[in-house]
Design brief:
The protein is an all-alpha fold. It has 13 helices and no strands.
């Protein structure tokens, strides 16, 4: 029989893989078509896995007007977090922006602990800390920053937007989780995508900005970003719904920069620095500690 902890680990790892793959391609689309178009069309494509899951596991949630309004408000709030992350990604270096954004997991842990009174034992804190510091080390190539023509102003590009995004998402996930205990949670996930799309449409109308794009390769990248992002959300919410280990799932899912580095090493033949290797080891060590 699968335990709650095992479900939490599976949920967090699958979310980590999904977001890692999505971020790997998101940088390309954001650089080409901007943050608004990337967010809008990736969310449209992201409806596909959610609709498939709904078709196979359709259950209507218990809806009240207050619950729906609460969810829409939280999703509206979260859409700005994702948008700010994409904006930061378009301005700065992926190796700098990604770990800063991933620090939302630390905010989520403290919110779950302080507000929702999630019980976190000492050994789990150690594992979470190992994973968090592993994310930071794995995402920065300190040797490259030191040796290549790198200026402090390059580090600051997109950092403010990304820090705000991390704080928003750190608040977003625990509050989002707090009212997804209903068995019809995939419907809420579908609603979340619609709220994000509507938010982007409203912003684009105010800015008089067209969301139309051209380019076959871009559509493929957007499809990949959308499908893997929604897949990550599906597994994340499944874990939230089945277990009380919000902190473990949140911080494991935030280890997506490690996936990006590994993919870059395999497909782009990028070498990993000593600090990045140490970071990957710390993440794996954290996984082992949490599993004990």
């Amino acid at each position: 029989m699968v335990t709650e902890l095992q479900i939490a680990l599976i949920s967090g790892i699958l979310s980590m893989l999904g977001w890692g793959l999505a971020d790997f391609f998101a940088k390309k689309t954001v650089d080409r078509i901007g943050d608004l178009r990337t967010l809008f069309w990736s969310q449209i494509f992201g409806l596909v896995p959610i609709l498939i899951y709904l078709f196979l596991n359709f259950k209507l949630p218990h809806l009240t007007l207050r619950l729906v309004l609460h969810f829409i408000l939280v999703s509206f709030f979260g859409s700005f977090g994702i948008l700010l992350f994409y904006r930061g990604l378009s301005k700065g270096k992926a190796s700098v922006i990604t770990p800063i954004y991933s620090s939302y997991a630390a905010f989520a842990v403290f919110i779950s602990f302080l507000i929702f009174h999630e019980v976190i034992i000492g050994l789990t804190w150690l594992g979470l800390g190992s994973i968090f510091f592993g994310i930071i080390l794995a995402s920065f190539d300190y040797g490259e920053i030191k040796e290549v023509d790198f200026e402090l102003k390059d580090l600051s590009k997109g950092v403010l937007e990304t820090l705000i995004a991390a704080i928003i998402m750190g608040l977003y996930f625990p509050f989002w989780n707090s009212f997804l205990s209903d068995t019809g949670w995939p419907v809420f996930l579908l609603l979340n995508n619609f709220v994000i799309c509507i938010t982007v449409l409203i912003i684009s109308l105010f800015k008089k900005f067209t969301l139309r794009i051209k380019g076959r390769n871009l559509w493929v990248w957007l499809l990949i970003v959308g499908v893997f992002t929604s897949g990550a959300f599906l597994t994340l919410v499944w874990g939230f719904n089945k277990t009380d280990f919000t902190s473990i799932i949140s911080i494991l899912s935030a280890a997506s920069p490690v996936v990006v580095i590994i993919l870059a090493r395999i497909f782009l033949k990028e070498r990993m620095s000593l600090t990045q290797k140490l970071g990957v080891v710390l993440v794996l060590l954290g996984l082992i500690i949490i599993s004990i």
